[in-house]
Design goal:
Helix content: over 70%
Structural class: mainly alpha
Family: Belongs to the UPF0111 family.
Strand content: under 5%
Number of helices: 6
Organism: Streptomyces cremeus
Protein name: DUF47 domain-containing protein
Mean pLDDT: 93
Low-confidence stretches: 1-7
Radius of gyration: 18 Å
Shape: globular
Length: 206
């Protein structure tokens, strides 16, 4: 760890943790969506929308702190990238829930539950990792595991696409379901972007 003679703004750590905790909330709402009927889904979508707004607020708070801080705990570009990637995760999860409601999807295809389980695990790992930014310790297993989960998400996504194009669904239903599973895959990619940014920060600070 590099020795610094100047004090650093430490509130970023708490804000990153708050943003990641909010993503865990979003992942739990995705889990709720799986077994919900149409009426319950609408209510879940409202709660997800509120969580997404909370995520936006957390991101804006980080950007405001970044713009008003003379000294930051690590590179400004990395702070911006980390905050943006965390925000992207929440945006993709909210979009997926909204699409399920807007498209009035009666039954999600088999495999979506696996996608969501991967996202929920990645959310837990990300929330657990954020406090580690203070010391840059014990983070290696985090980014390795999130990268593994993203590879798993890719495999699940490919199987889902094969299932959607097997002739069981009509063309319009395929378009709707494909957009939903694609957005969930983008959420998995965004988790990997967060992990890669954390790895970049840790390498620079070592």
């Amino acid at each position: 760890m590099r020795f610094r003679l100047t004090p650093r703004e430490t509130s970023f750590y708490d804000m990153f943790s708050a943003s990641a905790d909010n993503i865990v909330t979003g992942s739990k709402l995705l889990m709720e969506l799986l077994g919900a009927d149409s009426a319950a889904r609408a209510e879940i979508a409202e709660r997800m929308r509120a969580a997404e707004h909370a995520g936006d607020d957390a991101t804006h708070a980080i950007f405001h702190q970044l713009n008003s801080s003379f000294i930051t705990p690590f590179d400004r570009e990395d702070i911006y990238n980390l905050a943006s990637s965390l925000d992207d995760i929440m945006d993709f999860m909210e979009e997926a829930v909204d699409l399920v409601v807007l498209y009035q999807v009666e039954e999600l295809p088999k495999g979506v539950e696996q996608q969501i389980e991967v996202l929920a695990r990645a959310a837990e790992l990300t929330a657990e990792a954020m406090p580690g930014l203070r010391t840059m310790s014990n983070l290696t297993e985090y980014w390795i595991e999130v990268n593994r989960l993203e590879n798993q998400a890719d495999q699940i996504h490919r199987k889902l696409l094969a299932h959607l194009f097997n002739g069981k669904y009509d063309a319009m239903e395929v378009l709707k379901l494909k957009q939903i599973v694609d957005v969930l895959e983008e959420a998995a990619d965004a988790f990997e972007h967060v992990a890669n940014t954390v790895e970049t920060i840790a390498v620079k600070e070592s």
